[in-house]
Design a protein that fits this description.
This protein is an alpha+beta fold and 359 residues long. It is built from 6 helices and 20 strands. It has 2 domains: 184 residues, D-amino Acid Aminotransferase, Chain A, domain 1, CATH 3.30.470; 114 residues, OB fold (Dihydrolipoamide Acetyltransferase, E2P) (Beta Barrel), CATH 2.40.50. Strands 1, 4, 5, 6, 7, 8 and 9 form a 7-stranded mixed β-sheet that branches. Strands 13, 14, 15, 16, 17 and 20 form a 6-stranded antiparallel β-sheet that branches. Strands 2-12-11-3-10 form a 5-stranded mixed β-sheet. The protein starts with 28 loop residues before the first strand and ends in a 30-residue tail after the last strand.
Length: 359
Amino acid sequence: MGKPPPAAPKRTARRLAPSVASASSVIGAPSRYPGFIEPALATLVSAPPVGPRWRHEIKFDGYRLQARLRSGKVSFLTRSGLDWTARFGRALADAVREIPAAEAIMDGELVVEDLAGRSDFGLLQGALKAGDSGPLRLYVFDLLYLDGRDLRAAPLSARQARLQELLGQIRGPVRFSEAFDDPGEIVLRHACRLSLEGIVSKAIDEPYRSGRVGIWLKSKCSSRQELVVCGYVPSTASSTAIGSLVLGAYENGELQHVGRVGTGYTARIARELYQALEARRIDRSPFAKKLDSAAAKDARFVRPELVAEIEFRGWSRDGLLRHASYRGLREDKVAAEVVIERPQMPAATEPAAQRGGSR
């Protein structure tokens, strides 16, 4: 197994032992090799859930990928089903081929780590743009299909144990994403101290369910949100660069204005965004409601096609971003699916035994 992300020192977080299932265990129902599987998504909560049925993993700062192996052929699909195999070079695909299976489908996240071992979305974008596959790492955290059997109906504990055994001692860019059975509050505290993005808590007794259904929960160290790029304000220092982005999100099917972001750009990124947005210019505002004069001042509107990841401190009373900073474009996200994520209250404790599941 490769080096796990630095979620917490060993003395404070107990990694899971691969004792839930053995390598000879047969789980899942016989099934033909499926097509693209819609990913399970995590619901944002204000604090991690508590109770023995929850395990906690590091929230990575990268691209969600579905790694697929079939008769020696490897493919990598984004969360929306786009085939990005050609973007990642041979090393990643070769590592998946080392898995002792004829057919497999794994869920994971592609990252590039900094010198401290933290995943960094900016470094990932830079590596992909440069065509440098050397630093790419794929952390896998779920096993959906294996050698003629669909594992999605099996509990998470069994799927992860089988995945961990499947990877065995494989070295290289494909690695098992460690989980922790310490209280979520402790794991999150350590993640935040290490300047990580946050954690994802998962119910160990549940099957794999596509979509956002409340059995995967995410707790963040800082507020981040994908938002739709709806326009820009030109730079005052250059005629071929942006000064800020005009952003929105969908609510009840309508595109709503959520403010601007004017920090987080290098000079190169500001020029690249200008070129990308100039090609998408439109004459009228794409928002459902007319903007007031302050919001519309100097704005040049574009087709709402691109998605940007934004880090911010909170929301104003009128629903606008506060102290926002640009993190990068999200090519793996569909603009029409971008909605505001508002934290829910954490899930109540509910022992697995009361639900008929196993720990």
